[in-house]
Design brief:
The structure is a homodimer.
Chain A (H helix, E strand, L loop, with lengths): L3 H10 L6 E5 L12 E2 L9 E2 L3 E4 L8 E7 L13 E5 L11 E4 L3 E4 L2 E4 L9 E2 L10 E3 L7 H9 L4 E5 L3 E7 L3 E2 L10 E2 L2 H11 L3 E8 L3 H4 L9 E5 L10 H6 L3 E6 L3 E2 L5 E5 L2 E6 L3 H20 L8 H6 L5 E5 L10 E11 L2 E6 L8 H6 L2 E5 L11 E6 L4
Helix pairs in contact in A: 1-6, 3-6
Amino acid sequence: MISVEEAQQRIAAAFRPIGTETADLAHLAGRVLAEDVRAQADQPPAAISSMDGCAVRAADGDSPRRLIGEAPAGHPFKGKVGAGEAVRIFTGGVVPDGADAIVIQEEVDREGDTVHFNAGVARAEYIRAAGLDFKAGDVLAPAGKRLTARDLALLAAGDIVSARVRRRPRVAIASIGDELSRPGEPRRPGGIAASSGYGLSAMITAWGGAPCDFGILPDTAQEIATVADVDADMVVTLGGVSVGDHDLVQKALGTRDFTLDFWKVAMRPGKPLIFGRLGTTPLLGMPGNPVSTLVCAILFLRPAVDAMLGVDPGGCSLPARLRCGCRAMTARLKRPLAASDARQSYLRARLSQEAGETWVDAFDLQDSSVLSTLAQADALIVRPPDAPAAKLGDRVEVIPLDGY
Amino acid sequence: MISVEEAQQRIAAAFRPIGTETADLAHLAGRVLAEDVRAQADQPPAAISSMDGCAVRAADGDSPRRLIGEAPAGHPFKGKVGAGEAVRIFTGGVVPDGADAIVIQEEVDREGDTVHFNAGVARAEYIRAAGLDFKAGDVLAPAGKRLTARDLALLAAGDIVSARVRRRPRVAIASIGDELSRPGEPRRPGGIAASSGYGLSAMITAWGGAPCDFGILPDTAQEIATVADVDADMVVTLGGVSVGDHDLVQKALGTRDFTLDFWKVAMRPGKPLIFGRLGTTPLLGMPGNPVSTLVCAILFLRPAVDAMLGVDPGGCSLPARLRCGCRAMTARLKRPLAASDARQSYLRARLSQEAGETWVDAFDLQDSSVLSTLAQADALIVRPPDAPAAKLGDRVEVIPLDGY
């Protein structure tokens, strides 16, 4: 039995970034860049005014100026501003040749073609220099970044129309168990509806992968062995990894080219996790209980998807790192917790906020078959192995569950 | 000029939940329920074993038992367990009639058809009662909840195959300005690429809306007035809302059936925000600078989309409420901030974590045209009107930007 940390390290070490594809700008949100994206042009492309007003030469001081033209956004003034001259300019307009200061509208009095200024002329105060935001050739977003909505606006400003991204890793999901039927289909005797796969597919999609449903397989070695034929970047099996005669994943895969990396992790829920390689395809065998599956997905599958996407953790925001457990977030206990055993525990819990502090409260029912509390949870409390009892107000480590 | 809070309240008051549609289980992630979803069956449907072992009558104590059959998951034992009898049971198997205790595998010695137990028989310890997770008719997810991946697993377990959700609100986006061209197309003289719309579309999609691109409109009242013809739940214009002669949105819409609710909000960036109604369609007129647009989208458009979706804020997780600014999150300043003026400011900033505390550091360059710092930011610092200078280590309010 290995620790959660060792299992995470072994899994991360087993994946490399996969192939790439080109995606259009409008479809880049959430995609992970395979190469740096560089600006095609300076932004702004020329010095522009940030206000409505008059473009003038600062050297002329407060003296009146003669208006010689206009420079609205998108319509640059073609001449040059000389001594004693001014050009009416609007927000986003190019600062005309010769001008080096903007007098804002509120400080201008106009009489015919002459303008008088109420206040001193401020040099460059309302001028945005060419390249203020970025210059042609600057890296707008680095390889390994998962692009946000804000990145899309930045790329558009840099005249980017498409980018090279990692393709979505295909993750095949096989649900194993004679007791399973699809939701809405007639139940088997004493059976239940297959549920984890729906949650898992939605998580994989949210993380940037492409889930493929391999369906429900009965508890026979022959049927389970068919997962070896799937064309995917990774195979996930749900159920069939425990110790009983009817847990057949290892037995079934032994008939194919399966190499075990590890079996069993010192954690709760999720102990009987299997990781190995089916030919060249990594296989993660998850426990059958839905809470175990979804908690193991957050801890072990998400890093695998990130590794296939080539995500650079240095480019992740702090909230994203807290959410995937890369960085610890703490909260104070609303109620005491008992001492824990040798397995690292993940307790479903609710967060709240009082007087600027974050508090957390574990649900009473932590059975690994109970999905309702997982759906109501907004965090997992992480209890390290052999943690002593914790009292009201103690700080504990939590993984927020927002977003999936 | 009104406050940010008043603007948010006026906008929220102008929207009602829109129509509904039915979506399949596999496509429910991120959708907002229009009605409560209730379980179709008990989960588990019968008492089941949570371990491999023997199902017995507790009343028989530690005496040996005669094995009379098996109960794997999905294959219930059809007979009844009588005095001195046991049924081999597996995780997920239905507890047979007559049995009320499970002796786990590790405590069982088998000799032929007889089993001996090493330890005491624990009544019901490894039995999951019928309906432990939920009972038929229980609300699995309430109306107004935005469904997570975990909810999908729960709904599947409750035999739900589809649900009634709000349709995605259609938000038309028109970019206004003679200086604009599409990314990658030839630039206009002194012009720039239209950028905000790409970020805005990705945000609207992430929030559950359906963005529709109305394209780029030149700075003429006649062209701008065409937005009145769009078929959408809401219209957003980008640019053209400031005070100059070339800012034409109000003038243009005055020729159509436009009712102004408010113009100008005491904030930075984003002061010249317009809100009103075009016929019966709400219209939000955003400033042209991309940072203003995207910050105003987070503060004003996101609540509008949530209101059209009928999102119940009570059902949102704490992280989601922190992210939309419904609840305040605080962080400590890494560097001092100057006193602020009468406008509420939103400063692009980076979060970090030290010794379990969250710190925040504002970028030096806060110009509202500079997208690169918005893309690098992972939070906005909220500076209230007339805030005094803040020093190193002071706590300030922040809105995390994770996820968009």
